[in-house]
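Dear colleague,

Following up on Tuesday's group meeting, I ran the structure prediction for the two-component complex that the binding team flagged. I've pasted the input sequences exactly as they went in, so you can double-check that nothing got truncated or mislabelled along the way. The structure tokens for the whole assembly follow below. Feel free to forward this to whoever is handling the docking comparison.

Inputs:
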Amino acid sequence: MHIVVTGGAGFLGVRLARTLLAQGSVALAGAAPRPITRLTLVDRAAPPADLAGDARVTTVIGDLNALLQPDAQGATPAVPPDTNAVVHLAAAVSGECEADFDLGLRSNLDATRALLQACRALGTQPVFVFSSSLAVFGHTAEQPMPPIIEDDTLPTPQNSYGIQKFMCEQLVADCTRKGFVRGRNVRLMTVSVRPGRPNGAASSFLSGIVREPLAGERAVCPVPPETPVALSSPTRTIEGLVRALQASDAEWGPRTALNLPAVSTTAGEMVAALARVAGPEVAALVDWVPDAHITRLIGSWPAGMNAQRAARLGLRADTSFDDIVRAYVRETAAPAR
Amino acid sequence: MHIVVTGGAGFLGVRLARTLLAQGSVALAGAAPRPITRLTLVDRAAPPADLAGDARVTTVIGDLNALLQPDAQGATPAVPPDTNAVVHLAAAVSGECEADFDLGLRSNLDATRALLQACRALGTQPVFVFSSSLAVFGHTAEQPMPPIIEDDTLPTPQNSYGIQKFMCEQLVADCTRKGFVRGRNVRLMTVSVRPGRPNGAASSFLSGIVREPLAGERAVCPVPPETPVALSSPTRTIEGLVRALQASDAEWGPRTALNLPAVSTTAGEMVAALARVAGPEVAALVDWVPDAHITRLIGSWPAGMNAQRAARLGLRADTSFDDIVRAYVRETAAPAR
């Protein structure tokens, strides 16, 4: 069993890789479990040493679009001939796509298209898990959206990242219908708490306002406290991706995207949870400095998901943001109250 | 006022060009009417003599993707610098896209993207009318769809043509949000009765079963009589495109696509209308020879539209398919009963 993970050195990619290697085998698309003999991690950067040192791991480092250019024999470094499944996590994030329209199209639409074509060229119909995003949903004064999203709610993206993700969902669906891949479109919620450093995502602060105070650093919350957010812990998010790999075609259902479950909360409640778990002096390290651009972008995203399809697959939201903070504290051994 | 029409030598393009030239001026996006000083028709073929001979008409003949490659100065033959509006009708049709996946992506997605980039390069925010299609809607046994489509029904395309049109809608919406163009996504219904010859559209027979018998020729209907179809006459379709050009941003409303109104009927009822208008001996020229592939494709399309947004713009469906047949007979001076 050979699985390719794009963005395999990123936060979710690394976590997925560790989960899959620990699990050891995968019941791909509902088939009998087979051992993972090879895990190819494709990224611009190298993965951490524990992954790079695993005998089952191959690293392919470079620009994804370049790595998807077929050679004279039609082979591509990013998608070796014996690939059974691809989990496509690599993407330009929301802030980058908003700042550079062409970069977003190249990194998200073109790369996904090339990746699908590389899978098609294999002729073996690999499972293709596409990480879409709740950013496909959005509302403005002129474009209403229900506050709670159903599985068949019409996406009306209000940023280029969401537009590109939604376009890719369509392409994955059509390549599935055509028998090129066995696609699973999965819409990830905003993942919090991400460890590490801030990234270019407009939602980056939704980890920062917990992570930085727990490390004793001040953090800026650029949206008003009442801003609703739909969150998922890293653990629940990885569960969703693994379930997508393992669900049979019948379990998975339609080619439209599946919304992962979310904890519905607000920026203010997140910081209140931080105070409850780590103490008010930690929560006091958050500075509330609204940024109009980020407030508009994050404020256009949905507040919650009625993730019925996900529930039928056994996927549940985190119990509370307090529990998410507690789990983060446990994992990082940050000072808990 | 300079308007570019891609697919300008095609059936709808020619009809739109004649309508615009006869009208003489356009109230572009709700502004005061201004005379049309130039109409550029872009197509692989030359337009008819009456258009080519009009002093206001410029013809640009060639492959659209090639004509959208910018030269060293960034100019493109298909989108001259003084372009005020583009009506993008050129497309590979449903049958072609289903037969050749890559052709569909090139002719529909890549060409629309290049056209939007050429408009963006002008820096003048031209009006951009994109002809999408009811083919964005589709259902299968696993993918239910309401029988009557609302303006916010989630499209679930069941063919590559519909997928590509829906992807282009997203790109037009985002280019509008970014201020590159003033986009109007318009979903056209199946146009019937088209004059001329059959084309590569899976829906081509929906004109053929009327047109050919009226010309004394036999025609095959490849779907069962009870197959529901959502139709619009050429006249009503052109009305919709002209309204899209002339609606102000406020009248037009959201960047999501607008469904044009449709007459809801069935293949059997169409032939019954033909019998009523032209006589049973004409209708008897239709041979019912079901084709599984076409039945699946057409059978996945919606039966009707609750086109509320279109109604607010004053757009109405044809009164009946009988009236559509009568109008076709009148226009083509075919023998009426």
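Residues 205-229+263-305+312-332 of chain A form a domain with the UDP-galactose 4-epimerase; domain 1 fold (CATH 3.90.25.10).

Cheers,
M.
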